[in-house]
Amino acid sequence: MGFGSSSNQLGIDDFHGEPGPQLPDDFDTVTATPLEYFLLIFPVQLIQALVAHTNAYSVWKIAQNGPDDRWDDVTFAEMRAFLGINILMGISQLPHTEMYWSTNPFFGNAGVQRVMTCNRFQKISQYFHASDRSAEVGRGLPGYDKLYKVRSVMDVLLGTFRRYYTLSRVVAVDEAMVKYTGRLSFRQYMPAKPIKRGIKVWMLCDSANGYLAKLEMFLVFVGFVDT
Question: Where is the PiggyBac transposable element-derived protein domain positioned along the sequence (predicted)?
Fold first, then answer.
């Protein structure tokens, strides 16, 4: 991108990119399963890190609170299943988590029930961790990061989002709201939005199809006071 020499008008260089998926050379699009596509974006190494962080956090938490006879270290297979169930819960939503294990055929999900028990799902949820708790910088200290607990996951995903897809010439930057009603220092209240309470994020997307390439969370509160 450059500037015109005679008038301060913004000049835009010709677009020479090849937009669309940029898959590895050894990736077979004919035989690839949805799971293999997912693992391009959410790599095995990230799942392994979640296993390690969750088990490490459980050790620390049990040392604080005493033995937990219902807990066994989570395995890679369990973590993969746990993530899959959470994705499914976002697609097929029920009012309460326990309802996915209901014996009522109108609510219970047979697939979820075959993969994991309700008690095990709740235990993994209790200790689930996505960061190294021992390396976390305390609030008010130099290097403190409000997003530390999810920063490593965000960094990996934003890297794979860009690695395996080239944006088209026309992109859009806009704000979005992620619904969240819990306690959070940077939660926003925006009464004019369809989602009024949550986390505000800036998103860079491909205008042709909405593909998300980059996002930044808005961490400084500006606007209405949530009362």
Answer: 33-217
Contacts 24+ apart (CB under 8 A), 183-192: 185/146, 185/221, 186/146, 186/217, 186/218, 186/219, 186/220, 186/221, 187/226, 188/218, 188/221, 188/223, 188/226, 189/223, 189/224, 189/225, 189/226, 190/223, 190/224, 191/224
Nearest to 165 by CA among 37, 23, 21: 21
Residue 5 is assigned to a structural domain of this protein: no
DSSP state, 149?
H
Query: CA torsion angle for 49, 51, 52, 58 (degrees, to 10)?
Result: 140
**Which among 142, 154, 138 is positioned nearest to 41, based on CA atoms?**
154
Give pTM, 2 decimals: 0.86
Cα gap 22→164, rounded to integer Å: 5
Match 């050379």 to its residue by tokens. Answer: 25
Q: Do 39 and 118 sit in the same domain of this protein? A: yes
Range of the domain at 79: 34-135
CB 22 within 8 Å of CB 168: no
Q: Beta strands 171-179 and 197-206: pairing type? A: antiparallel
pLDDT digits (tens, 9 = 90+) for 118-137: 999 999 999 999 999 999 99
Amino acid at 216: E
pLDDT digits (tens, 9 = 90+) for 133-184: 999 999 899 999 999 999 999 999 999 999 999 999 999 999 989 988 888 8
CB 127 within 8 Å of CB 54: yes
1 vs 217: CA distance, rounded Å: 27
- Please give the helix or strand (H or E) that residue 37 lies within, else none: helix 34-41
